Amino acid sequence: MKSIFLALALIATGVHAAEESDDNPCDKVENEVQTLECSAFSRTTAEQLLKDNYQGLNERMQTAYSKNPAQLADITGKLKAAQQQWLKTRDADCAVEAFPATTGSKAFTIAQNDCVARMSDERSEFLESIGQE
């Protein structure tokens, strides 16, 4: 079972690494330790992009609704609630996805990191698409 997770993790981290243009720990993954480092890098990178896109969306809403404080408060409240709920759902889904691996093991951590990175990337794209002209 662990070898299946590691194989999936290598594939997932390799795909995510291909999207990165800078030199990073995902460039030459050849063993389990490097896979773990790559998955951590992918997670951190995806979570930073998610944070940036969420902030960008809030800035777009500030610009779009700056003349109507009531609408601005309404949309920013909805965005905050939606993002908080999405983070809870992402974390719960990733716990389910990584479940067969033993909590605390490298396989579990890699599966968890890869899931968070993948789902965060998907959410980032969604947030980036909202309110674009």
TrEMBL record:
Gene3D superfamilies: 1.20.1270.180
Taxon lineage: Bacteria, Pseudomonadati, Pseudomonadota, Gammaproteobacteria, Pseudomonadales
Secretion signal span: 1-17
UniProtKB keywords: Signal
Record-linked Pfam families: LprI (PF07007)
InterPro entries per the UniProt record, alphabetical: LprI-like_N
Name of the protein in question: DUF1311 domain-containing protein
Domain of life: Bacteria
Residues covered by the Lysozyme inhibitor LprI-like N-terminal domain: 26-127
